Amino acid sequence: FAPNGDLFAVTTGGSIRMLHDANNNGIFEPSEVTTWASTGGNGNNCHIDAAGGFLYAGTPNGVRRFPYVPGGASGGAGEAVVINQPSGGHGYHTVHVYDGFLYVHSGSSGNATNTSNPSSSTYDTTRSLLRRFDLSKFAPGTPFDWASGELYSQGLRNMLGYTRNSAGRMYGVVNGLD
C-alpha cells in the first residue's frame, strides 16, 4: 500500500497496476485499476520507498525504479538500478527497500541445483541468495551490477516473500525442494 491508500500490484507478466479507490467506498472497482508501469516481464512484487520517492520492482535481469508521487497516474519508463541478475529457473526478483538499502532476492536455477559449482557442497554465489545495495551510492544512469551487491543471506532456494518487523529483523518465506 502507498501512503495515500493506493494499492500497487504486479502481474506475472510484469504490469505494475495501481488500484485507487476514487469513490472511497472501500472497494477497488475495475474502473479504478490502471496500468501504472511495466517491469518488462518479471512480476512478483514492488516496493514503495516513499522517503526516497521511488517504487522499485524486479525485472527479468535485475531491478528498475520508477518515480513515485502520491496520486501520480504513471511511473513512466523507470530506470535500471540493478543489472545482470540471473534469470530463468526461479527467476522472480523480490525487492524491498529498508533504511536506504535495496534488498533483492535471486532464486535457484532449478529444484536442487548449484549452477556455479554442481559438484560442491558450497553455496552458489549468484543464486539462491539475498543481496543488498546501498542506494546512497547509486548514480543514475550507472546501475549496480548484480555481483557487486553485498551478500546478505544465502541458501535461500526461492524466497518469494520477505519482510521486516518493527525490531528490524527480516523474515522470509522460502519454497523448499519439490
Describe the structure.
The structure is a single chain. This protein is mainly beta. It has strands at residues 7-10, 15-19, 33-38, 46-49, 54-59, 62-67, 79-83, 95-98, 101-106, 129-134, 144-145, 150-154, 159-164, 170-174. The strands form four sheets. It has a five-stranded mixed sheet with strand order 4-5-6-7-11, with no helix packed on it. The protein has a four-stranded antiparallel sheet with strand order 8-9-10-12, with no helix packed on it. Strand 5 (54-59) and strand 6 (62-67) form a beta hairpin. The radius of gyration is 17 Å and the shape is globular. It starts with 6 loop residues before the first strand and ends with a strand.
